[in-house]
Amino acid sequence: MIKLFPKLNTKNNEVALVENGNRTTYAELNKKIDEFAKGLLGNRSDLQEERVAFYIPASCDYVTTMHGIWRAGGIAIPLNVASAVSELEHYLTSAKVTKMIACGDYKASLSELCLTLGIELIDVQGILDKNEGQNLPTIDPSRRAMMLFTSGTTNKPKGVVSSHKIINSQITTLADAWEWTSEDVIPLFLPLHHIHGIVNILSCGLWAGATIDLYKSFDISKICDSVATGRYNLFMAVPTIYVKLIKYLETLPEEKTYEICRGFSDMRLNISGSAACPVKLFNQWNELTGQVLLERYGMTEIGMGISNPYHGERRAGHVGQALPGVTVGLFNDKHEHITEQNMPGEIRIRGANVFLEYWDNPQATEKSFVDGWFCTGDVAVIDKGYYRIMGRSSIDIIKSGGYKLSALEIEGVLLTHEKIEEVAVIGAPDETWGEAVTAFVVLRPSASLSQENLKTWCDGRMSAYKIPKKLRILDSLPRNAMGKVTKSDLKKLL
Asked: What fold, for 397-492?
């Protein structure tokens, strides 16, 4: 039975969280979580998987709320604080949320919506004040613990439900694979409504007894100042963050740049994830800091499934091999298992890390599994024993002239052009090719580039069928709240 989840040492006086200079020890955090859970229960003995949503940025209150809901027997539903209030209605109604927890201005912004939906709106201190000292329930590991929503790029977002046991598996797998210890100190600036921030950083850190510096957003100057002092020995980010860091370093005096790069160099590990890391970026970061980025693969439904090794070769453009306890297979359209090298197939996953269900959507749950394998919708190849992601089958795989082309690989080549700052590639409907490779390019400031010159440049670097047949130059690429390029929006521009 799991009474405390994840594991927190009640007698540990080491620092767990640092928020705006305020330090909270594990013992203090554990006590606050218990008091919160008891206040949330009121006169009940168990929340019995009641859905409790919270709209709180990275903070001690966030950690208290999530763990407090778990300990009280509820299902925790963290929401994106960057979302417009109008966007939240789908999440709240589909999950049948009964309580919403928020603080300060966030609470005020939700009052009308919660009133309309009949949801009780409360803040953390209000719940702590209700603590009457009752006992907490003993939670069976098989019970539902958390609901995260998919990005909804192709359909309405679905609620991905995981049990305590599943989250436990996701955490312990990474804690072992990436050798987390109580000596680790890491900044957390990623949004806390998805798996990367919640499991990979926050939960793994707390499980290991590490120290986590909490940032409500990516404060590049403050974080880099701390990096320069040698505070952090572990760093996890998305590729966009590494791009921003490189650009920021270019604006600094040489001495300051050296101090920051040395700070990154001294870390035991830098990790990139949530989107493909371009080979160019991988190499740039290595040249600047000496760090070989560890790229991995995961998604909301599975946590992390594949990773480059902590010890051993980390290959640019590859996500590595299956993590311990995770079974990975590639399958073709006929559901046949692919074992040949460089043969594209859909990634399918089995293991204790795989989610329980899509909330209140048995049809979608059933459709996402074939013979016990979870079908990710991502296409990859096995390249000398390592998985290399080609992209989402729905948006990143272009079927052109009888070939299956990876938009991500074409983007990687285009990004090596000295005048190109950003690029996104999609397949546009075409009578001759089926789908024509179409590139949307953002140029570096003051740069100019014609379609003809770009195609000439591509001639010596890509096979003829991969060269973009259509090209659009934009001032910027459309992005969602996570900073990811929305290729569905790009298709609307055609």
From this structure: GMP Synthetase; Chain A, domain 3 (3.30.300)
